[in-house]
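Student: Hello, beginner here. Can you help me understand the protein record under this note? Any guidance would be welcome.
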Amino acid sequence: MSGTIRFPFRLAPSGHVATAAYGTDQEINDAIAAIVLTDIGERPLSPGFGVTDPVGLAIGDVAIDADIQSALTTYGFDDVTITDTTLTPEPGGRAAVHVEWERDEPEVDPLEEEEDDE
């Protein structure tokens, strides 16, 4: 396998399981989708995974941002920061959740920079 299994699960046109390459924006977007659609406590083996309000009634609330950030950090995306969440009502009583995020700048070791200059 060349990455993580896509969320939601699907098959690629080749018939193989669709994957998102490690470290890509798609892998992060899939992880955020899984977090937002999961209620905390819903996964018995990962009871802290998810958000307290997966229905989205409090999207844009600091608590939801914190839930998403906490899950990302706990499950391997500690270089990603949630910057905003918005909820857009859609026809039929549905809603779209948009989560904005950015990658943190990697910390550069000043000693490594000096070695590169030589």
